[in-house]
């Protein structure tokens, strides 16, 4: 099983990119509600944001075929959580370092509750960050995937998608100031919402209710005669 160089995510350029992602995600995540959130990232990820409307975070580090953090397990198996357990799920560069990224995305959708928010961030394959990553890593490197591929997968799962956004500087810099959104940014953000089950409106059907008819007339009543 390949072991990714997790220190790359602790480098100054990627720390700056993570900070730009956090700024871009803040307005969306601030509206998220629920009892629990799930935060998945590489070996040295940023801390999950403090959300005023969310109860608690569960944080997992994705390291190829392994998971650790609040829960320890295999990255080759389903996530150890119930269906619809989290109001928000964040995959912050987690799909880049997972041994089974598509299966991890499927699991993220499974544990997301209806109406919940899924946030995916990653390094965009198009631009200067991709060759920089090749130069920086000497062993198995993170696998970069086009964001439109994840959007296609999410659309196939009947998720509501927000517009895709490019984030951060176009070039990796050791002392990069925050730049936020940029058309040529090194990272991307994909936001999706899990649709709630549609409610089928029930059409009332008239039902004849027989009125009780006593066998005898009340005292003093007259029967109409024709």
Automatic annotation (TrEMBL):
Name recorded for this polypeptide: Methyltransferase family protein
Disordered: region residues: 201-226
Keyword Transferase present in the record's keywords: the answer is yes
Matches recorded under InterPro entries = Methyltransf_11, SAM-dependent_MTases_sf
Q: GO BP, one example?
A: methylation
| Methyltransferase type domain boundaries | 75-120
Tell me where the signal peptide lies.
none
Regions of biased composition (Pro residues) lie at 203-213
Keywords on this record? Methyltransferase, Transferase
Any single GO molecular-function term of the entry would be: S-adenosylmethionine-dependent methyltransferase activity
């Amino acid at each position: 099983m390949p072991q990714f160089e997790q220190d790359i995510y602790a480098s100054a350029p990627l720390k700056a990119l993570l900070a730009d992602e956090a700024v871009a995600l803040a307005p969306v995540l601030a509206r998220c509600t629920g009892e629990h959130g799930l935060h998945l990232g590489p070996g040295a990820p940023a801390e999950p944001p403090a959300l005023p409307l969310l109860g608690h975070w569960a944080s997992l580090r994705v390291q190829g075929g392994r998971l650790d953090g609040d829960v320890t397990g295999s990255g080759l198996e389903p996530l150890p959580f119930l269906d619809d357990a989290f109001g928000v799920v964040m995959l912050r560069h987690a799909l880049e370092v997972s041994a089974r990224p598509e299966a991890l995305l499927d699991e993220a959708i499974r544990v997301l509750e209806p109406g919940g928010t899924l946030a995916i961030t990653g390094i965009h394959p198009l631009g200067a960050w991709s060759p920089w990553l090749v130069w920086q890593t000497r062993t198995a490197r993170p696998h970069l995937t086009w964001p439109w591929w994840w959007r296609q997968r999410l659309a196939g799962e009947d998720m509501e998608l927000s517009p895709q956004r490019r984030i951060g500087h176009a070039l990796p810099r050791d002392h990069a100031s925050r730049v936020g959104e940029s058309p040529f940014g090194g990272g991307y953000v994909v936001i999706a919402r899990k649709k709630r089950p549609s409610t089928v409106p029930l059409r009332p059907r008239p039902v004849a209710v027989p009125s009780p008819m006593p066998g005898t007339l009340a005292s003093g009543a007259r029967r109409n005669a024709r």
